[in-house]
UniProtKB/TrEMBL annotation:
<dbReference type="InterPro" id="IPR005226">
    <property type="entry name" value="UPF0014_fam"/>
</dbReference>
<feature type="transmembrane region" description="Helical">
    <location>
        <begin position="34"/>
        <end position="53"/>
    </location>
</feature>
<keyword id="KW-0472">Membrane</keyword>
<dbReference type="GO" id="GO:0005886">
    <property type="term" value="C:plasma membrane"/>
</dbReference>
<protein>
    <submittedName>
        <fullName>ABC transporter permease</fullName>
    </submittedName>
</protein>
<keyword id="KW-1133">Transmembrane helix</keyword>
<keyword id="KW-0812">Transmembrane</keyword>
<comment type="similarity">
    <text>Belongs to the UPF0014 family.</text>
</comment>
<feature type="transmembrane region" description="Helical">
    <location>
        <begin position="65"/>
        <end position="86"/>
    </location>
</feature>
<dbReference type="Pfam" id="PF03649">
    <property type="entry name" value="UPF0014"/>
</dbReference>
Amino acid sequence: VIENRLMLGQTWKQALEDIRRDAMRSGMMPSINAMAAAGIVSLPGMMTGQILAGSPPAVAVKYQILVMLIITVGTGFGALMAVSWGGRRLFDDRERLRLDRLVKQ
C-alpha cells in the first residue's frame, strides 16, 4: 500500500496517513476501554483504597479520574512518539521506503 502511494506521487507523510491513524487508534484503545469501564464494571484500586480509608467518595473519584487521565495522556504521547519515529525511520532523506531498516543489523 505504501509503495503504491509513493509511486502515485504522494509524500511519505501522505502515504503513511491511514496507517499512522490506525496505529494511534490501536495504541489508545486499551486506555480508552479502561476509562470507560472504571467505576461501572470495576472499582479501580486507588479509588477503593481511598474509600476504605475513610475519604469521601467524591474526592476519591476526582483523584481516580486524574490518575486515569494521566495514564491515558502518557499512553497517547508514547504511541504518538512510536508512530512518528517509526514512520520517519522507514524513509531516507530522498523519501525512499527503506524496509531494510526494520531489521536490526
